[in-house]
Amino acid sequence: MQSKPAAATDQPVISLRGATASLGSRPVLRGIDLTVTAGEVVALLGANGSGKSTAVRSVVGQVPLSSGELSLFGTEFKRFRAWSRIGYVPQRTTAASGVPATVREVVSAGRLARSRFGLLRKADRAAVDRALALVDMDAHADASVNALSGGQHQRVLIARALAVEPELLIMDEPMAGVDLANQEVLASALREQVAAGTTVLLVLHELGPLEPLISRAVVLRDGCVVHDGPPPEAVGQHALPGHDHVHPHAAHDAEPLRTGLLS
């Protein structure tokens, strides 16, 4: 894995201040503050409709802010261009993509942000191979993505984001609809990224096997931050306002999936 440039100690990786956003005419974010510093693993938690996905989609520019301030790596969002520093995994859909591509081709597409003129060099191919191995999909590199199970498909989407070798990894419900075996594979891949210094912001419906990695939990309710501190397991699950629906280990229905674009 290529070395990452050192993040400025006085600049957060993500700084969101007084952020408001609406979906259509419906206000979703109501003045939230969110700071993520280098090396942190921050989980966004909250009930369905609390604004978790809208918050991360605002960070990557998919949902424009109505008001407030956003900066990435110390750069004001409207001037930020270094998207190769960020890997993004949106909520997956249950439908097959319908794209006649192999697993390797899909993962390679995630490397284009670092390639010149769309041509993959030796270092790019090595990064793709590493990403495939991280999610244990190297044996399926030449398989069609349309022949994969839901859990395998999710692993490919995460490998696509990892192929860019991101300094910041943003994932929206990465474990939704994924069986326990695939969850463990994904947790292992994320552990390696965190150990290498990657900063992570992720939306979770349940903590599951990712729980030991979480350094901070931010709980949203009705578009407002109601808790920003230790994960629920550390403070007692029911001590967090608006958090009684989140179960560290129990499996239950994930919130409805939404479509999104990989960045």
Mean pLDDT, nearest integer?
Answer: 83
Please give the number of β-strands: 10
Number of helices: 6
Anisotropy-based shape: globular
Main sheet summary? 6 strands, mixed
* Helical coverage, percent range: 10-25%
Question: If strands are numbered along the chain, what order do they take across the biggest sheet?
Answer: 6-7-8-3-9-10
- First CA to last CA: what distance? 20 Å
User: What is the radius of gyration computed over CA atoms, rounded to a whole number of angstroms?
Assistant: 18 Å
Structure write-up:
- This protein has a 6-stranded mixed β-sheet, sandwiched between helices.
- Helices cover 23% and strands 23% of the residues.
- The model is unreliable at 1-8 and 234-263 (pLDDT under 50).
- The chain has 6 helices and 10 strands; from the N terminus they run βββαβββαααβαβββα.
- It is an alpha/beta fold and 263 residues long.
Quick tags:
single chain; 263 residues; alpha/beta; 6-stranded mixed β-sheet; 4-stranded antiparallel β-sheet; 6 helices; 10 strands; 23% helix; 23% strand; globular; disordered N terminus
